[in-house]
Amino acid sequence: MTSVKDRHYWSQLRAALTGGQWLAQHPAKTPHGAPLSWSELLRKFNKHCKGFKDVAEVASQTQGLALLLSASSLNEDEDRESDVELFQLQLDGECILPEERVGEATSGYETLKTLETSNFDTINLALAYYAYALGNPSDCISHLSKISNLYQTVPIVGSFGSSTTMLTVPGAGSQSIATSASGSFVSFADMTVPEVKDGRGWAMTETFRSICLHGMSHEQLYPTEAQKALKAYREAIPLFATLQTEYATISTPSSTGKPDWTSFVQLRELWRWVERLIWRGVVLSSRHGDQESLWAWLNHYNTTSTCWPPTFRTSHRSTVSTIHLRALILRHGCLAPSPLHLRKSAAWVHTARSVIQDYRAILSMCTKFPRAGERNVRVEEFVDLCVAVWEGSGAVGEHAGWVLDILWWATRLTFNSSRILRHMTRLLYLSGDVPLAKRTLRLYIQVVGKSYEASNQDIAEDIDTDDNWVETLVFGARMLCRHASALLGVEGLEDVKEAGTVLEKARTRLDKDNVRLRASIEQAEGIIKSLLAIKEEDPYTRSQRVAEAHAHLLKSVELHPTSSGHYHLAISFSRPGPHRDMEQAIEQAGMAVEADPTEVRYWHLLGLLLTAVEKWVEAVEILEHGAELDDSYSCEREKGEARVNGDVDRESDVRTVKGGEVLSSDSVPNGNASGVFVAPNGRQQQQNGVVNKDETTDETRQFLPILDEDVLEIPPAAGLFKSILRVPIPSEHNIFEYSLQLRMTQVALTEVREGAEGAEQQWLEVFAWIAEKKGLVCESIPRSSIDGPGPTLDMNVLPQDQEKHAMANGDNPPNELPPPPIPIMISPATPIIETAEPGEGSPTREKEKRGADKKHSHHTLVKKSSLLAKSSSSFERDREGSKSTKKINQMLKSGVRGVHKSGARLTAVSRKIGSGVVRNGSLRRSTSTPDFHAVLRQTSYQASSIHSRRRLSSIVQSQDGTPSESPPPPPPPPQAVPPPPDVKLNSRLAKEKRMLSDLWLMSAATFRRLGKIEQAKGAIQEAEVRDENNPAVWVQLALYYVALGHHQHAIDALQKALFISPYDVSATVHLGRLYLTPNENRRSSVSVPKSEDHSSTNMDLAASLLGYLTKGRGWDVPEAWYFLAKAYGMQGRKERERDALALALELSEHRGVREIGAALGWCI
Fold first, then answer.
1. How far is 697 from 694, CA to CA, in rounded Å?
2. Disordered: where is this region (predicted)?
3. How far is CA 518 from CA 215, 463, 500, in A?
C-alpha cells in the first residue's frame, strides 16, 4: 500500500508543477479523489515519500516564487499588457520581482542555498530562477554553469504511456532514461501510471526555463550586444524536434463539440517558458535585423502555437502575429512595385492567411465590442494588416474576398470604425460590388463627417486623418465617375453629380501644402466636369464644362504629374473644341506610357491618337507593343506559377522603354535584367509581367528592416499602405477586355490601311487569340430571336413584296398551320452549310421537309459548329503568316464539321456559304440557315426577349391588315443552366458578352464590305447569340438589308434598335440616312401611288431625329452633322446646311479609326 501512495504523490507533485497550477486552491487529489491544497500535497509527499524533503522544499519555493511573480501580472500566465498598451516590445522587467516583493523572495533564496550541499541539479536550476527574479543575472549564469550538459538535455521517450496526457509518450519496450536536468523528480518515476507522472514533462520545462533565463541574463548584462542573448536562445532549437514529436498535440473537439485542451493544461508551465523564449527571440531578431533568426523563430512560434488555446498569452501572440505579418509584407513587396496580376496567390500569402486566421481567433477571445467613447484598436490594426497583405500580394480585386470576410467579421467587434468603412469601400468596388461600395462610401462620409463636427466641440471621436479623408473621398468620386462612364446616355448622371458633392466635402479637410492630394482633387474635378459635359447632353453648358475640365486637368499635371493625369489630359486635348491640340494629346499619352509602361490602355490611347493624325506606321508599332503586354502577362504568370512549384526559369524576356524604343534585356545599358522597367528618369518600375518578390533569390533580394532597434512598440500598420488613388491593378478579366479592345482597334487600323481584304485575315488571328485566352467562349444558347419560329420562305421563289404581302395576310390554309418549331439544340448558331440539291428551295421540298419535321420534332436541324477552335497548343500571333493561321485556313477550307476529339471547335465564318449571292440580287436561302425576313416580319409570335417587346407600328403595318389567325406558340426551350445568383458575376458576364457581340458585329461589317453577304449574316447571328439586347445587332442587320437592297427591312431593323436603345447614335444616323435616301432598289410588282410618297415626311422626320441627336449624345459625330446638313438642304435651309457641313468637316478632321469612348472609356 505504501508503494502505491508513494507513486501517486510523486505523480501528483509532478502534475502540479508541470501544469503550473500556482494559484489553484486544490492542485492535487488523494488516491480516493479528495482535493488537496499545496500545503497538504507537500505534507503528504513528505509523509509517503521518505527521504525526499529537499524535493518538496524545491517544489514549495518554486511555487512561492511563481506566486510572487504573478502578483504583478494580469493572470497566472504573466500577461502584463493592459488595454491601453498595444503591441509592446518592452523586454525589461519580465520575471523580475518588484521592490516590495524582494524581501519575501530573498528568504526563499536563502532557504534553497542551504540545500545546495545535496548537489541536485534541480536545486541549481531553482537557484538560477530565484537569482534572476531578484535582479542578479550574474548569479543566475553562475548557478546555471554548475549544471553539466544543460543544453544537451533532451528527455527520451518512456517505455509506455497513455494518449490522454502529454507527459507520457506512447511506446513499448523502451526504458525511460532520466537526465541530469530532471534531477530527483525523474529518478523515482512510476512507469506504470498512464498520466503525466514519469517526470519528463517537468524535465523539459526546467530545461526550457533555464535556457530562457540564460538568454535573459545576457540581455541584462549586455544590452547593446543582442547577438549574445540570441546565441543563448538558439541553444533551445534542437529541443523543438523533441517538443513537436512527443509533447505537441493539437486539440480535438470533445463530445460536447468544444476543443479539448487537456493536454495543454497538463503542460501549461512548459508552454509558458517555450512561448517566452520564442517571443524574446522574435523581438530581438526583428529589432536587430537578424533576418535568418527571425524567420526561424517565427516558424517555431507558428508550429508550437497550434497547441495553445486562443486565450493563452494573448498579448505576446498578438505582438508576434503582427511582427510576422509585417515581416511578410516588407519582405515580399509591399513597399516595392507590386505584381500586375497573378492567376494564383503567391506562396507567402498562404502563410500570411494562416497567421491571420490564428490572430483572428485570438482577437475573438480577448476583445469585445467597445463601450461608448471607446475603440477596439486591436481589431482595427488587425484589419489594416490584412489589407496590407492583400496590397502586398498585388491588390487584385479578384483576390479580395478573404479580406472582405475579415472586414465583415470586424464590424461585429467595432462600432462605425472609419478604417473598416474606408477599406470596405475600396475593396467592394474593386471586387465588383459597386452598389454596396457606393452605400459604404455614403456611410463613411456620414459617420466621419459627423464625428469631425463633434470633435470641434472637444468630443473625442473617430474622425480619421485628414489625408485618409481626402484620399477616400477622391477615390469615391472617381469610383462614381468610372461607374457612370460605363453607362449609356444620361444614365449615371446622378452618380456624377454625387461625385461632385463628395469632392466638395473632400476639400474641407485638404492640406494646402500637400501637393499630391491637391493634384488628385484637380484631376477628379476635371473628370467630373468632362462626364457632366457628356451626360447632361446640354448644348448650352457643354462648352463651359469642357473648358473647365481641361483647366482642372492641366493644373493637376502641373502640381503633381501622374500617369493617369497625363492620360486624361491627352483625352482632353483630343476632344473637339478650342482646346484641341493633337500634338499635345500625343505627347501627353506618350508621357503616360513612359510613367507606366505596363498599362495596356495607355498604349491603346497613344495608338488611337496616332491614327487620328494619320501616322499609320507609328500607330501600328505602338499597338503592337500594347498587344505584347498581354503575352507578357501570360508568360510571366506561367513563370510565376512554375517558381511556386519549384521550377524556376532563369531566362526572361525583359524589356525597357527608352526614348519610345523597345529594347531587349541584352541591350539595357545598365545590365538590368531583374524584370523591371527602367524609365528615363532612372526609377525602376515593374515590367510588363509578374515579378513575384516571394520568388526572387536571397542573393538579389534586399530585405527591409522590420523594426528599428530602439523602438518600444510596433508602428501602426497604416505605414505599410500604398495610396488608394493609384490606378487599380487590373484583374484577369480586365486584362482580357483591354487587350481585346486593343486588337479590335488593330483590325480597324488594318482595314483602313489595307482594305477589308487585309482585315479579314486578321479577324482569324483575333478569334484564335480569344480561343487561347478564354478557351471555348461559345455557350450553348440558341438564337431565340433570329432562329425563332416562323414560316420558311424561299426568297428565290417569292419576290420581296409578295413575300411581305403573303406574311401580312397569313396565306397559309387554316388546316395547314405552320408546324411547331424544331428546337435548336446546338450552339453557336452559324451552321456549316452543305451544298443544296437542285430544287431544294422549292415549295414541294419545303412541304416534304415539314412532314418529316412533324414526325421527328426533336431532330437536330444542323450539326454543331463553333466560332473558335481551342487547339492543344496555343496560337501565337504572327503577322507574316504563322503556322497557326495557316492551320486555321486549312481547317476552314476542309469544312470542319462538329467537334474534334479534344472538344475544340472552329469558326465557320470564312467558309464560302454565300455562293450565288450578288450585292443587289436575291439571296438564295439554304435549308439550314434561318430566315431573317420571316423572323423580322412575323407579327403573331415573338421568340426572344427582343421580339417579346411591344412592336413598333412601322413593323406591324401591312397593306391588307393583320393575320386573322396566329399559329400556336412553340413549347418553351429547355433551360440549360439556371443563371448564377452572383450579381457581380452576372454583371461581368454581361459585359463580356456585349464585348464579344460587338466583336462579331465588327467582323460582320468587314464581310459586308467584302461583299460576303452570307458570312456577314452569320456573324450578325453570332452577335445576337452573345447579346440579344445589343442594339448594334439590329444596326448591322439593317446595313445587311441595305446591301441586299431591302430598304423597308433596313428601316424596320433600325427602328427595332431604337426601341431597345432610344437614343442610339448609330441607329439614329443610319435611320436618318435611309429616310433621306431614295429607295432606288425597291423591287415590287405593285405600283405605289404618288399620293403615298412620303419623301417629304421622311425628310422632316430625318431632320428632327438628327437635330435632336446633334444637340445631345451625337454632338461630336460628323456623320450626324453631315446628314443633318443634307436634310437642311432638302428643306431649303441653306444657311443651316452650310453651318452643319462646316461643323461636320471640322469634326471629321483628326478622327481616329475608333472612338475613344467606345474603345477605352472616358476615365480610368
1. 8
2. 805-901, 943-981
3. 53, 20, 15
pLDDT of residue 856: 41
The span from the CA of 785 to the CA of 947, in Å, is 6
Give the list of residues 6+ apart from residue 676 with CB closer than 8 angstroms, or none: 337, 654, 684, 685, 686, 687, 691
Percentage of the chain beyond pLDDT 70 is: 66
Confidence of residue 231 (pLDDT cuts 50, 70, 90): very high
User: What DSSP line would sit under 821-833, residue for residue?
Assistant: PPP--SSSS-PPP
Q: Given the C-alpha cell 524584370, which residue does it identify?
A: 675
> Angle 541-546-551 (CA atoms, 0-180°, nearest 5)?
125
What are the pLDDT digits (tens) for 760-793?
888 989 999 988 887 644 443 444 444 444 333 3
User: What total number of domains does the chain contain?
Assistant: 3
Instruction: Decide if 1021 contacts 1059 (C-beta within 8 A).
Output: no
Q: How many Å apart are CA 546 and CA 528, to the nearest integer?
A: 10
Q: How far apart are CA 116 and CA 749, in angstroms?
A: 95
| Amino acid letter, residue 913 | I
Q: Exposed/middle/buried for 933, CB within 10 Å: 0-12, 13-18, 19+?
A: buried
Final residue of a structural domain among 552, 576, 608 = 552
Cα(1033)–Cα(998) distance, integer angstroms: 8
CATH number at residue 1107: 1.25.40.10
187: left (phi over 0), alpha (psi -120 to 50) or beta: alpha
Q: Give CA–CA dist 938/808, Å, rounded.
A: 8
Asked if 369 and 472 sit in the same domain, the reply is no
CB 176 within 8 A of CB 145: no
Give the long-range contacts of residues 975-978, CB within 8 A, separation 24 or more.
976/780, 976/781
* Structural domain range at position 547: 465-552
Exposure b/e, 350-365, CB count within 10 A at least 16 = b: ebbbebbebbbebbee
Cell triple for residue 489? 446616355
Instruction: Tell me: do 491 and 545 sit in the same domain.
Output: yes
